Amino acid sequence: MPVDESFIIRGFQFKTPDNRQVTKRALRELQQKRFMNHSIVKNKKKTCKFGDVYKCPHCNSYCARLTAAHIGVNAAKYIDYIIAQHIDTSIHHMNSLICDEDCKTSIAICCDTCNKKFEAYENLKYILPPKKRFKYSFYIEHQSDM
Ligand SMILES: [Zn+2]
Fold first, then answer.
1. Ligand 1 center to residue 139 CA distance, Å?
2. What confidence score (pLDDT) does residue 135 get?
3. 22: CA distance to ligand 1 center in Å?
4. Beta-bridge partner residues of 53
C-alpha cells in the first residue's frame, strides 16, 4: 500500500484539560446528541434536505448542516451553572439535571447564522408558553447582559 508520510501523525502531546472542562465538554456532547438524535429533529431536518445540502427554513439559505438552536437561552450557560452547583455529584446526576432543563426549552432547526439569532432572541413570549421560562435566576441575570 502506498503511504504518504506527510499524512502519518506519530503521537500527540495533548495538554491535559482540567476536570471541569472535561465534565462540561462531555455534558455538552451528550446534550447535542440528545437533540440531534431525537426523531422529531431528524424528521424536520430531512424535510429541509436538498441533495447534499440543507435549506434553512428560516432564512432560506443553503448550508452544509442544520443545527438545533435553543431559543432565547444559552445552553452552555445553564450547563455551567449546573456544573458549578453540582460539581461533587456524578456526571449522570448532572446530565439528568441538564435533561430536565432541556425539556423546558424550545429549539429551532436552523442554519449556523440563524442559530446565533435564535439564542439571543428576546421576545420569548411570542414563541414560548410561560411555563417554559428558564428557572435559574443566575442565568437570567447573565442573559440580560447580552
Ligand atoms: Zn438560517
1. 26
2. 44
3. 31
4. 50
**pLDDT tens, position by position, 84-129:** 999 899 999 999 999 999 988 889 999 999 998 888 876 554 444 4
What is the 104 CA–ligand 1 centroid distance (Å)?
23
Which pLDDT does position 130 carry in this prediction? Answer: 46
* Ligand 1 centroid distance, CA of 110 (Å): 5
- Amino acid code (one letter) for 11: G
Decide if 86 contacts 97 (C-beta within 8 A): yes
Structure pTM? Answer: 0.74
Q: Long-range contact list for 51-60, CB < 8 A, 24+ apart? A: 54/111, 56/110, 56/111, 56/113, 56/114, 57/109, 57/110, 58/108, 58/110, 58/111, 58/114, 59/110, 59/111, 59/113, 59/114
